[in-house]
Specification:
Two copies of one chain form a homodimer.
Chain A (H helix, E strand, L loop, with lengths): L1 H13 L3 H9 L1 H5 L3 E7 L5 E5 L3 H9 L7 H6 L6 E2 L8 H12 L5 E8 L5 E8 L3 H29 L2 H4 L7 H11 L4 H8 L3 H15 L4 H10 L6
Helix pairs in contact in A: 1-7, 9-10, 9-11, 9-12, 10-11, 11-12
Chain B binds a DNA duplex (30 and 30 nucleotides) through helix 8 and helix 10.
Chain lengths: 237, 237
DNA sequence: TGCACATTAGCCATTTCTGGTGAGGACAAT
DNA sequence: ATTGTCCTCACCAGAAATGGCTAATGTGCA
């Protein structure tokens, strides 16, 4: 089975188009013997790539009703680091419970696992498996495959990055230390006056840093600059 | 060897203190038969955790001279997704070349590999191995262990998260759809007028969303609110 | 040496944001 | 049935940010 995984990862790496990748990924259903495979990624440009082996009805319904706004799987994806079983989420509230029933009806299994993956420029992707089985069986499944799920998530993200040429779009924006400081303090909620005080420079000087950072980042205003710097990992909150 | 890796990952998971983790990680030198192991992570609070098996002289020199500002390994860490060999970086520029020679002198090997890992709240960590050998040997080493390096990076990050109680600090703030929209558009660089236009509501209404979002997030101003929402994964750029 | 860039500092006019207060309707939960 | 939350709209005064100017110093690179 180990070799099967290696073979799969290699196949992912060798995909030359997204269509081809779709097919390879869908093949995971057979490898893992599960009902569905879902993969979606959001890059910084905002154009998402999504793949799911769900019925079209459910996919359309989901999209049309903007169910991602209440889907606990999606909502917690951005908060998690480790792969998480869908059972570990809170399905208490009414909208979530209704969503769960709708999903069951739409062919989604009662069990699932999601692997969140983060890339350098605020890219985010979520790789999920869904299945129908008992809690016990699913726990065993997860314990067995956790590491492999992580690797698959990583390789899929890498493949999408490559196929969408995200790698090369990396405009190497480097901020000067002072510019970084300025954005960090503003992102922490200080106004210019207090930030300048904190850095022991005049407010006028601070403005120069903000503006040069804005210029470098191609940002329209301070908020935009801070947001971009955060998303690009240039500063941390 | 596979089982050795599993055993290692398990040991990482069972660490109860950072000191213990240090020891376990240092043990990687024996497992991989390399000169040095380096791990550092930056969380959202800004207090970093760092571990390196380097000589103290080099570590102090590095810290004192703020060499991370010119270290290509660190600089490119924020741009990369896949593990990268240090040889693949650009050592052309003068400061980088000078740094490389200093590092060799400081006991760092001529080869290295780094694995960047990103967590949910802008956390970032870098797990690296350094060794002294030929390019060929190092290529073979990397091809052999790539997947394991990824897994180790992930598990280390997870362990540090747990030991620093980052997981639990997640106060689950939920924004309404409109609040989310508002912050997202502001984070994308729009001013209130255009954002309101985009959402087809009056600017006055938009302000209400911004302010209620500010209140919920405990933010001092719009920039702070957008930054917090981004850091908490409530919006995406 | 000259060029680029980081760092520091200031002024003025205009635009934008913030704080405080108020109000009505829709919808869901208890 | 009432409480709560969300969505919508409005005014006003004061605070803050922005755009457009100039200009000194020091450092590093070509």
């Amino acid at each position: 089975m180990q070799s099967q995984m290696e073979a799969f990862l290699e196949r992912v790496e060798q995909c030359k188009t997204l269509v081809e990748l779709n097919q390879v990924v869908a093949g995971l259903r057979d490898i893992f013997q599960v009902n569905h495979v879902i993969y979606h990624s959001v890059n910084s440009e905002g154009d998402p790539y999504a793949l799911a082996t769900y019925d079209e009805d459910w996919a359309e319904h989901y999209e049309k009703e903007e169910l991602y706004r209440i889907d606990p799987v999606v909502l917690s994806a951005f908060q998690r680091f480790n792969p998480y079983s869908w059972k570990s989420l809170s399905w208490e509230k009414k909208p979530a419970r209704r969503f769960f029933l709708e999903a069951l009806d739409g062919g989604v299994g009662n069990q699932g696992v999601s692997v969140p993956i983060r890339g350098p420029h605020g890219e985010f992707s979520l790789f999920s498996l869904s299945h129908t089985c008992s809690d016990e069986e699913w726990s065993k499944f997860l314990a067995n495959w956790m590491s492999d799920l992580l690797l698959i998530g990583h390789y899929l993200h890498a493949a999408v990055r490559t196929l969408e040429n995200i790698e090369e779009e990396t405009e190497y924006v480097s901020l000067s230390p002072r510019e970084t400081d300025a954005l960090r303090l503003l992102g922490a909620g200080m106004n210019r006056g207090r930030a300048a005080e904190h850095l022991k420079i005049s407010e006028h000087t601070l403005r120069v840093y903000i503006e040069s950072a804005r210029f470098k980042l191609g940002a329209a205003n301070t908020t935009h600059a801070v947001a971009k710097a955060l998303a690009q990992g240039l500063i941390h909150l």
